[in-house]
UniProtKB/TrEMBL annotation:
Matches recorded under InterPro entries: Biofilm_reg_signaling (IPR052155), EAL_dom (IPR001633), EAL_sf (IPR035919), GGDEF_dom (IPR000160), Nucleotide_cyclase (IPR029787), PAC (IPR001610), PAS (IPR000014), PAS-assoc_C (IPR000700)
PAC domain location: 216-268
CDD domains in the cross-refs: EAL, GGDEF, PAS
Span of domain GGDEF: 299-433
A Pfam family: EAL
Domain EAL: 442-701
Domain of life of the organism encoding this protein: Bacteria
Signal peptide: none
Protein name: PAS domain S-box-containing protein/diguanylate cyclase (GGDEF) domain-containing protein
Species name: Saccharopolyspora shandongensis
Family annotation (SUPFAM superfamilies): EAL domain-like, Nucleotide cyclase, PYP-like sensor domain (PAS domain)
Length: 701
């Protein structure tokens, strides 16, 4: 028999307690020791089911409890309560697993008890039939047998006319419905069911009375005058006369109130978040289905998607127990005001909550509710010695029910929440169809990008780099493009940011690097000394990749490209580690012969001095301040100063400066006067494929 961890009760003690609770609920044809041995085997099988074995084993345990004559509903109730309390001390299973195991046990018990009931019903039916139809000489003996079964049965029995009038009852029926026999006899079976169950009961009785079926089954609820509910499982049988015509009905009532309440408890657990007590995703699904019923014209619905700001920092710094207590506080502050407004708060998981507003009266009242909830959330929370202040970002959707569904509502709220998080903390954003369409496109591109790399939807083109002194082609800057099946040709500015956010940038950067090296190796073979040197810009995340050096070496080796025929563009922040020391990658690449260029040079003039002494081959200047140098009336003085300062800084470092985005000859001339040596952009030439670059140089030669 499996055992718990140190300090927990022994399994045999738990089994003894189990036996003590159930032994007196029913007649059990075994001694206490035999019962404990029997329950011990059952306990081991339940532990096995919790460990990951099939939950069918729990169903088998329920069936065997019935076969051991533990058939009183109290035996099942005490068993489930005892196991629900004790099993978690022996196995650290998820709450859902424990619920599934106990649910299967109850289902097996109910199924076996139903079979036993049907067997009893057949005995009773035969006994009653024999009592009515047997010959006169056997009548007394038959009546004695049927009366014994009729009187002693634990099931409530009613002899009923074909139109539903009760003619006779047994003592068990009076106990179940807490009425005297005189109150029941002469009354209608329809008086023993609540209104919501009358239609199904009438259909069942009618099918039996007309002879369409000989048996019928139904679960029925009956409400007593004091408001308490009695749940019964009704099994009805038709008794025919000697000619085979319908004569009367025998209805058997089994009291399943305890079992039903336990099952209802398990159902509640399935739709409740165990940490906060709010509804969970499953509950939201059912609530959304009800809120989206178009039961009247113009019906509206609101959905508010909350995400706590910086909650991870609370867990990381103060620990998960503090974080859990904070989540419970937030849940309480959402639940009460939401309920007052006729709304429902649920926890989606983690630090995300949703407030559903059925039958909303417009965006204004929903926003008012959101602002009230945000004020509640941001009130200080005292947890132990810590005073915490939570905040949340909220995506709000409010619209007519017609034309929407649960999936669209949740998706739009989620995207709107993403906009709220992007715009800052502790604020709400209302759904905007146009902006959300843009966000959906971004999410779609983000999801499709990995497949695009695999399916060769991406390709590399080059922007020529021109030498301002000679006009010659000094190099080529690689740019990746995406031939999207729906959106057409996309520039890297439309998807590189997505690749950076999703972590795909390392894989994408390696793919681009391999393509460029293959092109450059062909240029070297075909053009020799005239082959242009391509520049590939690496992202910050790619530069931090520990496999970067090995990856570059493998690509150079596989393509046969000499390292000196490649230039890598690096962001300034990638040149230094967390201690502000130059990264080892620079020396390794420089020793290999690869040219290193810093792009976005001059963004932080105060830190330019630390570039002194690094093995760099040049810098690239880009930004909006370069554009005014193309103005015929003269550049903006501040823009000219910024460019002059960046170029001057490069010259003091002994590095040539390249300017990006140069469009006109006037702009190029002014940049040359400021000390820029090379430029890229429309002035230097339009984007071209690798083959076009090769053909251009070959034709010029």
């Amino acid at each position: 028999m499996g055992g718990p961890a140190d300090g927990q009760p022994r399994a045999d003690e738990v089994v003894r307690q189990w036996a003590s609770q159930v032994i007196n609920t029913s007649y059990v044809p075994m001694g206490r020791r035999d019962l404990e041995a029997f329950l011990g085997k059952c306990f081991d099988e339940l532990l096995s089911a919790l460990d990951g074995g099939g939950v069918e084993a729990a169903r088998d345990v329920g069936e065997r409890l019935v076969s051991a004559h533990l058939t009183n509903s109290m035996a099942l109730a005490r068993t489930l309560r005892h196991l629900a309390a004790e099993l978690p001390q022996f196995r650290e299973a998820e709450p859902g697993r424990l619920t599934a195991v106990l649910g299967e046990l109850a289902a097996g018990y109910a199924g076996a008890l139903r079979k036993q009931t049907l067997c009893e019903q057949e005995v009773i039916q035969r006994a009653v039939s024999e009592a009515r139809d047997a010959a006169e000489e056997a009548l007394r003996a038959s009546e004695a047998r049927s009366r014994a079964v009729f009187t002693a049965s634990a099931l409530g029995i009613a002899i009923v006319t074909l139109d539903g009038v009760i003619e006779e009852t047994n003592p068990a029926l009076t106990r179940i419905f807490r009425r005297q026999a005189s109150e029941l006899v002469g009354g209608s079976v329809y008086e023993l069911a609540d209104e919501g169950w009358l239609v199904k009961l009438a259909d069942t009785v009618a099918a039996l009375a007309t002879g369409d079926t000989d048996q019928g089954f139904l679960d029925i609820r009956f409400t007593e005058p004091n408001g308490s509910h009695v749940w019964t499982q009704l099994s009805g049988s038709l008794v025919r006369d000697a000619r085979g015509e319908p004569d009367y009905l025998v209805l058997l009532y089994e009291d399943i109130t305890d079992r039903h309440m336990l099952q209802e408890h398990f159902r509640q657990q399935a739709v409740r978040d165990p940490l906060t007590g709010l509804g969970n995703r499953t509950k939201l699904e059912s609530s959304l289905a009800a809120a989206l019923e178009p039961n009247r014209p113009g019906r509206r619905v609101g959905l508010c998607y909350f995400d706590l700001d910086g909650f991870k920092a609370v867990n990381d710094s103060l620990g998960h127990p503090i974080g859990d207590r904070l989540l419970r506080q937030v849940a309480q502050r959402l639940e009460a005001p939401a309920a007052e407004a006729g709304a429902e708060a649920v926890r989606m998981g983690g630090d995300e909550f949703v407030v559903l507003v059925p039958d909303s009266s417009g965006a204004g009242p929903v926003v008012d509710l959101v602002e009230r909830l945000l004020r509640e959330i941001t009130r200080p929370v005292l947890i132990g010695a810590h005073e915490l202040r939570a905040s949340a970002s909220v995506g709000v959707v409010e619209r007519e029910v017609a034309g929407t569904d649960a999936e669209a509502l949740l998706r739009d709220a989620d995207i709107t929440l993403y906009r709220a998080k992007s715009d800052g903390r502790a604020q709400w954003v209302l759904f905007d169809p146009e902006r959300n369409a843009e966000a959906r496109d971004r999410f779609r591109l983000s999801a499709e990008l990995p497949a695009a790399v695999d399916q060769n939807e991406l390709f590399v083109e080059y922007e020529p780099i021109a030498d301002l002194a000679t006009g010659a082609l000094a190099g080529a800057a690689a740019a990746v493009r995406w031939d999207h099946v729906e959106f057409g040709e996309l520039g890297d500015e439309q998807f590189l940011g997505l690749a950076e956010e999703t972590g795909l940038i390392v894989r994408l950067g390696s793919w681009v690097l391999e393509q460029v090296c293959e092109h450059a190796a062909r240029w070297v073979r075909q053009l020799g000394a005239d082959a242009p040197v391509p520049t590939v810009n690496l992202s910050l995340r790619h530069c931090r990749d520990p496999e970067l050096v090995a990856g570059v070496q493998n690509i150079l080796r596989s393509t046969g490209l000499p390292p000196g025929a490649l230039a890598l563009g690096l962001p300034e922040s990638a040149l230094f580690d967390h201690q502000d020391d130059p990264v080892d990658t620079l020396e390794i690449f420089a020793d290999m012969g690869i040219k290193l260029v810093v792009y976005k040079f001059g963004d932080d003039y105060a830190r330019l001095g630390r570039l002194r002494g690094l093995p760099l081959a040049g810098v690239r200047i880009d930004g909006p301040h370069l554009a005014s140098l193309a103005d015929p009336d003269g550049p903006d003085p501040l823009d000219r100063h910024l460019v002059h300062a960046a170029v001057g800084g490069a010259q003091l470092l002994g590095l040539p400066a390249l300017a990006a985005g140069v469009r006109t000859e006037l702009q190029a001339d002014r940049l040359r006067e400021l000390g820029v040596s090379t430029v890229q952009g429309p002035f230097a030439g339009e984007r071209a494929s690798a083959l076009e670059i090769e053909q251009f140089i070959a034709a010029r030669g």
